[in-house]
Amino acid sequence: MMEGLTINEAARTTGWSARMLRYVEQTGLVSPARSASGYRLYGPAQLQRLRTLKELLARFDVGLSDVAFAARMAENRDLRDAVQSWLEAEARRPEEVGPEDWLRFEQEKHEKLLAAA
Amino acid sequence: MMEGLTINEAARTTGWSARMLRYVEQTGLVSPARSASGYRLYGPAQLQRLRTLKELLARFDVGLSDVAFAARMAENRDLRDAVQSWLEAEARRPEEVGPEDWLRFEQEKHEKLLAAA
DNA sequence: TCAACCTTACCACGACATTGTCAAGGTTCT
DNA sequence: AGAACCTTGACAATGTCGTGGTAAGGTTGA
User: Which among A20, B20, B41, B115 is least buried, having the fewest CB atoms inside 10 angstroms?
Assistant: First the structure.
């Protein structure tokens, strides 16, 4: 009846511990289906995502919380725009405009981005 | 001689504590210039960035480490591409292609992205 | 029925994030 | 010179992250 692997089976084939699979689910990054009685059921897509997630974390030495934040930015346009525009200000060269105009420009831009409720 | 505000002056006009201004600098998000004798000198641009950063953190309840990670993604193309493609897999509907093709597609995509040293 | 699973809910621990404060010593300004 | 700054470095308290356990109880399959 099982439409996918149970948590310990999934753990064995992905390299995560069962404990961490529950934790990953808690972060919202990989959520398996559930059987009628509440058992977690990992399908091929979830298993693949778990494997590549593990690779991603190890390869760039990032944390689950980092990827979770990236996911939050991907879902929330306001957050993404606010963060990106804040970061862009850093790269921009003040020489492109007069220092005064530059500051006013930045100020107005952020006021707009942060103003909306 | 001071080409900008010293740390306590900057603290007063931005709402951060002097302690936190040093910490923010440590995260690499806002780095003031230095006087010949090593004093931190905050110019108008830095002050504005500090104010908007504070707004950003409070408004979306994110941490400095989150913004620091966003900065890292903005700077590192490999990291950005790897994270984004991992996240995109979540949104994609397996119905667009057959389940088999879908899985193979995902597998190959991530192999490529994670393969490069 | 009973072993072998599964669930949620806790406790714990080390590492890191966020702040504050304090000490020892250099700089600035009057 | 001396008050009022600044610097780095360190210790500390609290909180979250990542991870492993353990306990009490439900599910499954031989």
Answer: B115
